[in-house]
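Example 3.2
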Amino acid sequence: MFAAPPLQIIGALMDLMTYEVISPRDNLALPTAVIDELVDLAVACNYIVDAIQTANLGESRAQGLIYSANSDRRSARHTRKAANELALSALDYTEHLILIYARHAATYATSTVRVAGAIAAGRPAPESMDTPIEPSQIIKEPHTYVPLVCLGQDHEVLASTHEAVMGALSRMTADTAMFYEGDRERSMWRRPTGSVEVDAALPSALHAYAAALAFAVSSHFDSA
């Protein structure tokens, strides 16, 4: 039911992965509101990954058009101008999508941590999920929001995906951290598109860790 998450930090946008979503069923002994939230977040993250890959493909095509125009013996100034504008537009859209991805993946990861952590500690699962978590909260307090949770037999996958989250955070520059601040006035929207190199390492790692935790929760009830 679950495609094992990649064990490495993902930088290339076309290498982003989607993950299978846990299926609501009778033996999944969790409050309906919690199951609905986890399924909803998983589906949302998968949709955003698809959108990022499509946008990144558009940027790649525009870059190819730039190369072709520069190689043409004709002046091709209109083609070159159009290609540059298309490339910048695609990059701007991709960066917006990455920030959207980070917000949803952050909430998905912290939600699954809460559920899996409660089960692992022998406590009742939460009755509902909290308000969405911003990526900046995880950047500032990763061990509070996304600690390593060991549940069931999936220790290796959980440890490797959690390590990927910590790795993405440790490699993050101050400029990239500001990109993830989420404040429309103070972060990405006040800087020129492409002025900070941003990839999807953090949200993709959070997505993978959340998916691994969701699978561990599902497996726990299957084996109960």
